[in-house]
Records
---
Amino acid sequence: MHASGSGSVGPAVGRRALLGGAIGVAVAAVGAPRLANAANAGSAAGAGNAAGAAELWAEYVAAPYAHPQIPFVGRAGAFGGTDDLPNPEVVANALDFGADPDGEADSAPAIQAAIAAAAEAGGGAVLLPAGRYRIDDLLHIGADGVVLRGEGSGRTVIEATRSLTDLIGRYGSRYGGDKSSWSWAGGLIWLCPTARWRSLTDAIRAESWPFEGWTGNARDEYESLTEITGSPSLGDWTVQVAGTDGLAEGDRVLLRLADDAEHTLLAHMAGEVPGTASYDWASRTKLTSYVPYEWPCRLTAVDHEAGTVTLDRPLPLDARPEWDPRLTTLVPPLVGAGVEGLTLVCPELPLSEHLLDTGFNGVALQCAWDCWVRDVEVTHTDNGFLLVSAKGCTLRDTTVSGRGSHHPYCCREGSHDNLVEGFTLLDRTSPPPANTQLHGINVEGLSSYNVWSRGRMEMGTFDSHRGMPFANVRTEITVNNNGTHGGDDTAGPLYGARFTHWNVTVTNGRAGMIKLDEIAPRSATVAINEVTEFGQIDQPDFVGELHTRLESYGDPSAADPVNLHAAQRDL
């Protein structure tokens, strides 16, 4: 990868190497592999490597925005990852609109009317007082600043009676076949801009499947604002542009990078390890459908005299001329909306056959930006919490419970900079059918710079559904690693570059999807306990050297700092 102007880039080491002691950096040309000049002689259990995490952190701090293995995620989450999420005042009480806290009548119309009243008021909280509310329809939040607020996940309970298939219709897959897209989209509490939601649900009823990307419509409908010039690099905050007319501080825009005929952009996302040159990108048609890469960002400064703009976080990739880098418009996202303080319970039905989910889904955030879910539990869901083309959203203190879910947490279709923290996956209360897969915390579809932090997973795995997600972090998590990953071969690699797993305790000792040093390019596996391959085992997608890091292996207590995301946020 190209070095950033923000500082020197630290070393990368071989797929099997363990670093310890002093870390040396080999001088390398820009874009060439960077190799460490010292390897740890300790055992596989990490003898002599107890200081590895602290040393790697010190190396990262010296050049935090363009480290070759560790991504900068210090601004992941709503409003830059703040601990202090908004607390809008109550502008509507669902009881005043006829909601029944005893659960005898369908409360969906009343709650939806209260949501509409809050939207009409320009935003605010809709209070759902303690009680049990039956809903025979889904709840949709489509206006900025509207928050559905219960009085705590232990006090306000919503009981759903009908699936999304019952309510809207069968949502077929844009990839053909008999798959149900409710297996990875839609929620019984669904946050999505109203225009986008209407076009999507109307298309479902008409059995015509639109593209599910950030634009929410055909990609040729974007408008170019300005070209990016000067070849800025991964980690740069300020970029030169061809013109600044019409740009202003605070604008929400898309950074758009198009791939070339040789698929060098995709290779860049994979860290440009040697195996990317021989990888058959062209045959991965599902993967290639995800480009151009579209990364929502905000302009924090516009210098009309210098012809530069400054972004709200550093560039996620190089912006080389051959990828036609530019800033474009985007369909307006949903901003400042949320769900908090409630439990959603679905019927305890057996989970459907794999990829045929009927859509007893929990909370979906689609084309949402700076939105949040806080103190929410979902029970007996097909899919728990879904981030679909979501940007900078926070899921805090959330729980998935009840019978097994297909995707307890799903992050897909170019979702970036989201934060899932304080999350819990509770064990199943009843076993699903034998052919049901349970994945865990999923990320796919070129989604980048997302964080899963402070989690307790009694089931599941650190799932990738292919589509080459890159630059994502899982940190301070305990997991019973009994799930499987998914994804078909046309979606391409399991991992792009700069995946980091930091301070992870695997209670059943299974390595799959957690120990990354022999499978994920330019990744870092730091302070995990000793694990063994068994169950689902994958070969690396790229042949040859992967330039990965394995530090403080065998000892999660050696994690220094304890939580990678929190430490980056505090930098």
Note: Residues 225-328 form one domain.
---
Amino acid sequence: MTKNFDADVAIVGYGPTGVIAALTLARYGISAVAFERDRDIYPRARAVTVNDWTMRILQDLGIDERVEKVIDPQRALRWMTYDREEIMRIEHPPSSLGREARFYNIYQPTMEAQIRAAGQDLYGDLVTVHYGDEVTGIEQDADGVTITSDADGTSRTTRVRYAIGADGGSSATRSRIGCTLQGDTHDFTWVVIDCHVKRWWPDRDFLTFWSDKERPVVDIALSAGNHRWEIPLKPDETPADYPTSAEVWPLLRALGVTEDDVEIHQHAFYQHHVRMCDTWRKDRVFLAGDAAHLMPPWAGAGMQSGMRDAHNLAWKLAKVIRGELPESWLDTYEAERRPNVQFFTDLAVGLGRVIKQEATEEERAAMNAVPERTVTPYEAPLNRPPVLEAGWLRGETGDASVIGRMVPQPVTGDTAGRMARLDEHLGAHFVLLGDDVDPATLLSAEEKAGWDALGAHYRAVRPKTAYTQGPEELVDLDEVILPWMQRYGARVIAVRPDRFVAADDVHGLAVPTAPTV
């Protein structure tokens, strides 16, 4: 794929977003070269959680089991006042996406190291990373992109087909291609205090938001024996007031935390942003993660949104480069990801109002209200299953439709009796699944030709009480897939390689032709 190019895709920045982009490209056989100006992983823990959607992406890349060893299941979320009145609680239901836990606590530097190492083991022949190499220029033409970089005074020029800017909130890539962030930065400064745990205390495994108008606090267990508190500075305070751990300790003691409980190993300061780029693409250069959007931390979705951006973009780029999809498919990247990022940004802002005691009782109730036309069971916004609101889809989206939803991932069997999670049977293909029927038999000749052109597979899903009838069939051993389809009235669903449902027989099984907006 790299003839006349040094690699297929260049990635500027090799944090979580950049790593997932590189590994997803490599998973589809596409070469990537990454430029990371820092030689080591950033030592401060920024993100604190991942959920089952993100874990399913890691599963697709073959690195989920290694990551699972360094993260911990999360118990629940609660919002408390300092007099221990519980304002709100969100329990996490079991996941339907392939694991029991819905959310996990992480320690970001450790998780990042594991992802990088696992990716190098699996895809080292297709992914090249230049550490300590800062990109100084990006130029593009009709055929490709030229990256200029500098490592210790030595200049390098790299020629690629496409480039991805995953270089964070201060992205130079964003400014180089003429994109601008729109939105606001909050005036409040927060101190983040990361600690090593020395002993257990009651309810440590809750993610607790201590709600208060003056001094709200985030209190969260991280993995690997770490714990974090996030505390806003008062208007008359500045970071200069907290030069060392000695000055930070009074903040923790005010919460009842002592030297017997934890050891402070670092602290830092940051402000919350609610900002999104005007466009995430200029020709052959794309933006992903914080380079494209910034959100407050309250929904735990900032880092994860970047990882999801990268996965969505990279599998499409790979198929375009391989000649399996038209270049117009790349227009679906922002069309699909922007509404999802906006959803989590709005959710984070709303949850922030709760922790600062700004939300009314009606606002809090609305966060858990069941919308009209809902197909039960309904889940609260923070536990919302993955969904696309727009993009490469055919038909109506919404609570009563299967379109845009991510298909569950139970254990299924094949005709030979091999039992595995659904994705292991589906592979990296477009797949049409039929409820106890060969889905190909329900397609018109024109519809089947359209799916055949995408290399689609056709698989009947049989109930476990029935015999299989052909070599490419699946058995719904956990009795999940068929009831899920039936809940939405679908007999056939068309599942994309990223496991989102693009079409069903309710809305028509013709191949979607353009992004919906």
Note: Residues 190 and 233 are 6 Å apart (CA to CA).
---
Amino acid sequence: MLPLATAAQMKELDRRAIEERGVSSLELMEHAARAVADTVWELLHPEEDGFSPVLSSVSSMIVMRKKDGPPPTDEEERQAEELREIIEGKNTDPTPRIAVFCGPGNNGGDGVACARLLMEQGGCRVRAFFVGDRAKMTPDETAMEDRLTAAGGRLEDFSVDMTDRSTLEATMDCEQQKILAWLSTCDVMVDALFGIGLKRPVEGVFRTAVLQMQSRMNCPVVACDVPSGVNADTGEVLGEAVQAKVTVTFTRGKPGLYSGPGAGRAGEARIVDIGIPHDLEYQMFRALPRLEVMHQPDSQLPLRPRNAHKGDFGKLFILAGSEGCTGAPVLAARAALRTGAGLVYLGVPQEIYPIVAVKCDEAMPFPLPEDYSAILERAGGCDAALIGPGLGRSPRVKQLVLSLLTDLDLPVVLDADGINALAGHIDVLDRRRAPTVLTPHEGEFSRLTGCALPVKDRLSAARDFSRDHGCVLVLKGQGTVTAAPDGSACINATGNPGMAKGGSGDVLAGMIAALLGQKHLRQERDNTPELAAAAVCFHGLAGDLCARNFGEYAMLPADVIEALPQVLRQWCER
């Protein structure tokens, strides 16, 4: 796992490093800029694929005139020729061109320093553009501009506002047109507009700069700390946001790079050390709830005891299925068995039992008896329970779910319609003392809590719910969040859009329940959050393997189950 930090925490850590430890803020900025410059250099020198002529839709838009308008003047012809030379010059001179967009804060200072370092390295043409009000420049950014000037560079003003495209051509002067034409020929752009501080929508010239970084799909963008337009804490896209190829983030990852829409804008997120003392970082974060991102399991699965029998690896009770939903219970049961469950008892309604029984080989399906005490006795004799996949929302189902939650003194995973049954009855969850894991997607979470959709701050919503109700919450979606009652949380970084198909949640729920039921995986302290997060990660890794083998369009939840042996074998102790 890799540690994360909120924007407020990072600002406080920077302050303490500078004020209490005497770390030079300019030195931190230089280190950050060097990491960004190195990333730009990597992108400029991939394996040689040949040289492609530049075609620019932006410049074409600038030099066009209305067909029914007056003929161009001599001055307009001269300006058009200058623009053509900028474009065509790229075809005759393949020297890489780099544009660095710098805002008025210290993130902009990182950009200015990056431009100087790239210029000093040579072998490329670099232009740095200042966006915003120069009166708001920080002292550190001003110092970096002085260094850029001393090295022979210049921080140019970028003042093009494309908010009103209908008046753009009439208000844009020749120099602004030249800037846009040059930008259309760039090989790499650097986004150093905002960093972690943005909280409101991107507007005006900042929006224009973001749009310029979006305008050429084949021009990669390297973002400093966080792509501009993305909320560093929530991943919310604030109006417009940069689509980065690589985001170089400093000291610790930011939650918005891994959760919500921001995860799709960050590209490859690289966490780099910029010189903040490690002991200071440890002192500040050791007393805070853990906040991490998981790219791979935190530890390997332990070897199974040689003298164990099937009962030692968990008796799992699954309550699932309804008419029209016969696949959900089967997928959940198969996933549980593939994840190591020793025995799986699958209770389904009488009317679908014949169908489910034909589909199951290793799991043991049975028709649910009418007598509640018989159901409770079967479930109570198990080590863990999964309630909800495809269960339906009838009044009888709702009462059955609430009764089992009240009476069972064992770990329960509540999924799908099991979660829906809790709506209006959250007190039943509050009274539970045994571990409980809820696995809602945002729609189910909204029905349960009444929150608006989309959930803008997924991390805070999950942490607050988990803390308030004493359960583990697995809030599914882009960057699935696993939150624990103590405030700790883990954002999952595995998985892909090919997993967004009916049945994927059933597979995940079965996997979580299987891990919770295996005695040799449980610890003396309650490690339910860690086991749930591990299951989410394994689920995503299996999905990524399927995407490589079948493609995101064709892969199925059943394929994910079949990929689990390869994934779990890799993460078992030898």
Note: The chain has two domains: 2-46+55-65+72-288, 313-537.
